[in-house]
């Protein structure tokens, strides 16, 4: 695409492309793009997870130590870790500890269309493309004297990787439609949840840029590998709710134990969202295990086989309505889960895999049955929705 055609994907032009009748969600997305592309940058705006990397685990202590070591220098930092682990939190803490007086400017490379990314990073001159009625400084220039944070660098198009490498080497940028080189005084921090070495092997990321970015690498472990950090994070999120919204939250020991055993695929971001959700559901009250959503309470594991004596006793005494317990007892929760899973299998077999019919046989709603099929990891190929 030529530079002069950038306007076709410009957010304002997308308003004309909306299909009628206009959907509110589609309109909201366009308006948000317009706000992001044209609105002023609020460098002091608070982030949901705050600006401190919290935790008592060895991994958390290691991350804080690395932050202290690299902050005073100008070394380029590459932060890696799963989505939601707190990569931007680390970047902000590095900036705040660096002593640099300029702003902290963040850009998510995966959230900006490829055709607009160059203009967003490097700026453009007046008349560079249709819609460019005035000259505009790019984010590199806006971060003068401060820190420029490139989030999701692994999603940056290859063409832009070449231009970014040149900026890192020369510390100069050229605006779109311009010919003048503009010096930039920025400290660069990049982050990604992608496996960059794998993307290099696939030809989707430049090896020279990878080594230029990873002068000082920092890897953040997922929350599931540092469960001891969870109570501190819950306390911090609860404290902020009290300060910002006047909502308090107290968790029982049993609820905290259940949360520490959960996998947290969304990491700290998922935890923050859950704390806010619980505060809405149980405002200014005590939260117990029964108040937690089922993925946390019911750990997604394949149920073990029933003890042989219990299986035989159930089958033999079903007609009499009496179940004898083994002398060493049973795990009632696991026992009932196995019964439920067995009944679902039987209902699906009887209904030839038709979920709606199986739900009618079991006397539950279709949505409920679909959720249970997912929970027990019943092979989708055996079901017909």
What does this structure look like?
The chain has helices at residues 11-17, 24-38, 58-70, 87-98, 114-122, 139-142, 158-170, 196-201, 207-213, 230-245, 253-260, 267-281, 294-297, 308-317, 332-350, 355-362, 366-375; strands at residues 77-80, 104-108, 123-124, 136-137, 147-151, 172-174, 181-183, 187-192, 216-219, 249-251, 285-287. The protein has 385 residues and is α/β, with parallel strands linked by helices. The strands form four sheets. The chain has a five-stranded parallel beta sheet with strand order 2-5-8-1-9. A two-stranded antiparallel sheet has the order 3-4. Strands 6-7 form a two-stranded antiparallel sheet. The longest helix has 19 residues, at 332-350. The chain is elongated and about 85 Å long. The two termini are 43 Å apart.
Give a brief rundown of this model.
The chain has 385 residues and is of the alpha/beta class. Helix content is 46%, strand content 10%. Helix 10 crosses helix 12.
């Amino acid at each position: 695409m030529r530079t002069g055609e950038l306007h076709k994907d410009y957010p304002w032009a997308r308003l004309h492309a909306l299909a009628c009748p206009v959907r509110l969600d589609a309109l909201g997305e366009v308006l948000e793009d317009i706000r992001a592309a044209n609105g002023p940058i609020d460098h002091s705006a608070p982030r949901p997870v705050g600006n401190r990397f919290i935790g008592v685990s060895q991994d958390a202590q290691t991350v804080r130590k690395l932050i202290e070591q690299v902050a005073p220098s100008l070394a380029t930092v590459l932060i890696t870790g799963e989505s939601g682990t707190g990569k931007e939190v680390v970047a902000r803490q590095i900036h705040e500890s660096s002593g640099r007086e300029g702003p902290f400017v963040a850009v998510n490379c995966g959230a900006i269309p490829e055709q607009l990314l160059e203009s967003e990073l490097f700026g453009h001159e007046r008349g560079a493309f249709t819609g460019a009625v005035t000259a505009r400084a790019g984010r590199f220039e806006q971060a003068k004297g401060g820190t420029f944070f490139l989030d999701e660098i692994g999603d940056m198009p290859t063409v832009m990787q070449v231009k970014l490498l040149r900026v890192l080497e020369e510390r100069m940028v050229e605006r779109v439609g311009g010919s003048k080189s503009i010096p930039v005084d920025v400290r660069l921090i990049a982050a990604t949840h992608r496996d960059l070495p794998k993307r290099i092997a696939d030809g989707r990321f430049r090896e020279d840029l990878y080594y230029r970015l990873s002068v000082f690498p920092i890897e953040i472990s997922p929350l599931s590998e540092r469960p001891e950090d969870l109570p501190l994070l819950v306390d911090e999120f609860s404290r902020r709710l009290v300060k910002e919204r006047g909502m308090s939250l107290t968790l029982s020991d049993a609820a905290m134990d259940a949360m520490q055993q959960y996998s947290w695929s969304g990491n700290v971001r998922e935890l923050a969202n859950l704390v806010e959700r619980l505060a809405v559901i149980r405002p200014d009250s005590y939260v117990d295990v029964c108040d937690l959503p089922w993925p946390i309470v019911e750990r997604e594991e394949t149920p073990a086989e029933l003890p042989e004596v219990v299986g035989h006793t159930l089958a033999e005494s079903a007609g009499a309505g009496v179940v004898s317990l083994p002398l060493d007892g049973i795990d009632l929760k696991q026992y009932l889960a196995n019964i439920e899973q067995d009944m679902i299998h039987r209902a699906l077999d009887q209904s030839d895999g038709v979920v709606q019919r199986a739900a009618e046989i079991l006397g539950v709603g279709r949505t409920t049955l679909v959720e249970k099929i997912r929970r027990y990891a019943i092979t989708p190929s055996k079901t017909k929705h």
